[in-house]
Design a protein that fits this description.
single chain; alpha+beta; Beta-Lactamase; Helix Hairpins; Heat Shock Protein 90; 3 domains; five-stranded antiparallel sheet; 12 strands; 55% helix; disordered C terminus
């Protein structure tokens, strides 16, 4: 319903704008047509008045019967075409031609001008000017055309005003001449609006269809369905929006799947030690496990407790890092010295498995700029994994190299290595290669924590391709010696 209302509101807005534009253009067109029609009508009346003035001047000159008859015929044709009141008056106020007002169809014209009006008209005519004006009568507005009729003086050659021709017609008669045009304009405007409305409906539907689909997909996502996608169609901007929406949906789907996997893995990893602790404790309490075997099972309970504590600590570390709560305390330190300290801290399990350790450092000292505590945690995790999966009597190599403005540290073992199908997932949380063989040997969070630490540093960690065991590499920003001088790559070489 929300998407339909959006489409309806958009359509109504477009139609309202078009309707306003059509109405404004129609009003302007009607005004223009009306003015043109009135102007043309009055020009036609003025032309008729000039013809009558010419005939009146001829009649005053020759007093012919033919001219008088023609004037009456002319006045009759003017009446029939314009329903007009026609009056020809000489300068002394005598009426030569007067169309009988009793025959006029228009009631507003059935009134003879008063002597005062005739005197005013004569005063205007004597100036020799033609007059077109709108007057108001008792019956309504009138359009009046006044044209003086003149005669040339044979001796002086000057034109003398002898009278005037007056033509009056009611305003509605003039209005009727353009009412048909107004109806035609209204019809064209209506047809244009209907056509524009159809086009706008089609375009609006095309514009809102992908948005409607996107809204439906967003609704599905709000209900937990992150597989919903929006069609990538429409204009370029809408396609880009749909593409960005689908990318967001894919990322949310991945995050949701990761969240579900995380919850499932945490539940599984927590259940295993808790179940063991509960089972052995219950067995010792109810006598299922003999008294003399209690120390053995208590050691198992303690080991499971240590495993549970380590798992919880790893979860807290990972959560803090992913929420960006772990702030970096960067400093310049010797990565070779840090690697040596990590090796010393893990001598017990190394000696227990009789492993051969090789420290292949390019330089005696190699300074980096990073958070020493977090990098120590990364090296510890990598070394612990190497010790864990290297067979008895195997070999582990730690090496550092300077490459431009970066330092590379690698941890390599000669164990069974990582299968190609496992390589893309080894940095995922709770992922452990060959789960049957490594059951109970870790939490599957170590490498995920390492990757997050390196990402916080703006650096990388990767599995180095090759044969013969597993080899991991981390990169670090090159640092300076204490005192502010860059580390000398040649220092400490034999």
């Amino acid at each position: 319903m929300r998407s339909l209302s959006m489409f309806a509101r958009l359509l109504i807005v477009f139609l309202a704008v078009i309707l306003i534009c059509v109405a404004v253009l129609s009003v302007l067109s009607c005004i223009h047509l009306r003015d043109n029609a009135i102007e043309n009508r009055m020009k036609a009346l003025k032309t008729q008045a000039r013809d009558m003035a010419y005939l009146a001047s001829r009649q005053a000159y020759d007093h012919s019967v033919a001219t008088d008859a023609y004037m009456r015929w002319k006045s009759s044709s003017i009446y029939q075409e314009y329903n007009a009141y026609i009056l020809v008056v000489d300068r002394f106020g005598k009426t030569y031609v007067y169309y009988n007002e009793s025959t006029l169809q228009d009631e507003s014209l059935r009134a003879t001008p008063s002597q005062e009006e005739l005197a005013e008209y004569m005063e205007q005519a004597m100036t020799g000017q033609e007059v077109v004006r709108q007057t108001q009568s008792a019956a309504g507005p009138l359009f009046t055309v006044l044209v003086p009729w003149v005669q040339e003086n044979a001796l002086t050659g000057e034109s003398v005003v002898l009278g005037f021709v007056l033509i009056q017609t009611a305003a509605q008669t003039v209005h009727a001449s353009y009412q048909g045009l107004l109806w035609q304009t209204a019809l064209v405007a209506g047809l244009f609006f209907v056509l524009a409305a159809a086009v706008v409906f089609f375009i609006t539907r095309q514009m809102t269809r992908p948005l409607t689909s996107m809204a439906q997909a967003a609704g599905s996502m709000s209900r937990g369905d992150f597989n919903a996608r929006a069609p990538e169609e429409g204009s370029r901007e809408v396609r880009e929006l749909s593409r960005a929406f689908n990318q967001m949906a894919a990322q949310l789907n991945t995050l949701e799947q990761s969240r579900r996997d995380f919850v499932a893995n945490v539940s599984h990893e927590l259940r295993s030690p808790v179940t063991s602790i509960q089972g052995f404790a219950q067995g010792m309490l109810d006598g299922t496990i003999p008294q003399e075997e209690h120390p053995q099972y208590l050691r198992v309970v303690v080991d499971e407790t240590h495993r549970l504590v380590k798992l919880i600590h790893n979860l807290l570390d990972l959560s803090r890092m992913e929420n960006e709560e772990a702030r970096l305390n960067r400093s310049d330190f010797d990565i070779n010295e840090l690697a040596r300290r990590v090796l010393i801290s893990r001598m017990a399990p190394i000696d227990e498995k009789q492993l051969d350790i090789e420290a292949d450092f390019e330089n005696e000292n190699c300074f980096v700029r990073a958070d020493a505590d977090q990098i120590q945690q990364v090296i510890l995790n990598l070394l612990d994994n190497a010790v864990k999966y290297t067979p008895k009597g195997g070999k582990i190599t730690l090496s550092t190299r300077t490459v431009g403005s970066q330092v590379s540290l690698r941890v390599k073992d000669n164990g069974a290595g990582i299968l190609p199908e496992d390589a893309p997932h080894i940095f995922d949380r709770f992922y452990m290669a060959d789960k049957a063989r490594t059951a109970g040997m870790g939490t599957g969070l170590g490498l995920a924590i390492c990757r997050r630490i390196m990402e916080n540093h703006g650096q990388s960690i990767r599995l180095v391709s090759g044969t013969g065991g597993a080899e991991f590499e981390i990169t670090l920003e090159k640092g300076e010696k204490p005192g502010g001088h860059h580390a000398d790559p040649s220092a400490g070489k034999d």
